[in-house]
Design a protein that fits this description.
76% of the residues lie in helices and 0% in strands. The protein is built from eleven helices and no strands.
Length: 327
Amino acid sequence: MGSASRPPSSRFSPRTVGLAAAFVTVLVWTSFILIARASADPARGGSLTPFDIAFCRILGASLVLLPWGAWLARRDRALAHRHSSILGLSPLPLRVTLSVGLFGGVLYAMLAYNGFVFAPALHASVLMPGSLPLWTASLAVLLLGERITAARALGLGLIVAGDLLVGGASLLRAFDGGAVWKGDLLFMAAAMSWAMYSVLARRHALDAVRATIAITVFAFVSYVPLYTLLVLTQTVSGHVFTAPLREVLFQTLYQGWGSVVISGMAFTKMIEYFGPVRSTMITALVPGLSALGAVLLLGEPLYWNLAGGLALVTVGILFGVRAGVAR
């Protein structure tokens, strides 16, 4: 048969799909840092608060993933697999849904978006994707009983040195009334929250699609109704219902569909083709690219300690991953 008769899945080689998935993953992870800073920074005139942006993120992802989760849960019940929870929307058991949803959904979004209120994107470039391997390795030792080799420990040590080079200066300036240190701590906490989600997903051997659906379901039922009530009763200050519709739609589409749905599927495809080790090496591009974007697009100054911290973190990630390859 001619090429016009081939099914769509055969038109692209696995290598092409893998490379495209890697490109999309790095692009979304990098742009997330830049767009979140541009949106949450009060000095840039955005209408939405960090909690508003988290609302848009969760609502946007829910529009796609909740129907998907309901379909998966219904199919599982038809196959006598009774693992669904939360009104039949999550395809995972309730206890697992609650744990991964708390760390991978609600906490991560609130910590990350609030961090951009206080600290620039350059700091996030180093402290969020950069410190993620450090937190993941530490939690894996505590919760999974994994061991860290000397080579991997050296890589993690470089990451710690890079984080201290970036965040240490901010902490010292706290005594002078500076507020950047608050953002740095929030970025580190966000990375730790996502690392906890990653370790829990590994502990329960979760499928990436089902895990993404589960954290979105939990975030939707726990955050969206409560925040809507608090904003409508003016208990908290929120502008999600009064901000320009164009801004709300952009955040809903980008943060929800792009940052959660598309990025999640692309990351899964990248893992499928390149494997976890090489995929980690690819995502090590994110700190450098997002830092470059912050300088060129947001006009943030690149001080020596930021450049040094970025270099140490990037080398630490690559060294640690290469140590895993050698082992």
